[in-house]
Amino acid sequence: MPFKRPLGERAVNQSAPTFIRPLQDRRVIVGQSVTLECQIDGYPDPVIKWLKDGQNVTQCPDYEMIQEGKKHALVIKCAQGADAGRFTIQAMNAAGIKQSTCMLIVGPAPTPIPGGSGSMSVAPSPGPPQTPVGPSAPFFIKELRHQPHKQGEKAVLEARVVGVPIPQVEWLKDGKSLNNYRLNVEYDPQTGICALTIPQMFNEDIGEYTIKAVNNLGTAQTSAQLVSSKEKKVQGA
């Protein structure tokens, strides 16, 4: 709906929103607090809307929106994997509309490698370079995590990938294309969530699992291991 100009207000006094400081990509660990902030100028004062992956989250109770003069911020007090994604702030007034976008990457906390000593851990991979709003090579904002192999139990390996154009994904086991009718593979191109489910684990499922994402701008992959309980006991002895 177009803005109505108050009577007597001259168009010459108006200025479209301008980002003095745009949003910046951020990477945090699960459980940490993170603030996405920018500075916006414009007259009349712009109306602000926040979006996550294209959905309006301005009224979302999980996020706190702060405005102090020209500064606008979205605060997440305890980031979780579901918070990862593309955040956009839209600023609109009678003179125009502008927006700024950033990527929030939420990495897992360091986790022990099954079968390793108690002091060994895997730290999250370094964050990718700043992601453009336009086309970008794939990268994983949620990576696979190592899991213990428990005979007869269920296991789920899950990751989340982003990229423009939307990447194609492929699962590998020990470096070879995964071809096992018992395993269920799911991929939602819109959210980027990729999941591999093993309904009931057997010894043949032990190994390294990799998911590879590809688009015309590049390739990315993440890997995790299913390690048997017996191997864990021997290595930890």
From TrEMBL:
Record carries keyword Transcription: no
UniProt keyword terms in alphabetical order: Immunoglobulin domain
Keyword Manganese: no
Record Pfam families: I-set
Xref: SMART domains: IG, IGc2
Transmembrane intervals: none
All residue ranges annotated as the Ig-like domain in the record: 17-105, 138-227
Coiled coil (UniProt feature): none
PANTHER family from the UniProt entry: IMMUNOGLOBULIN
Family, as annotated: Belongs to the protein kinase superfamily. CAMK Ser/Thr protein kinase family.
The protein's name in its UniProt record: Ig-like domain-containing protein
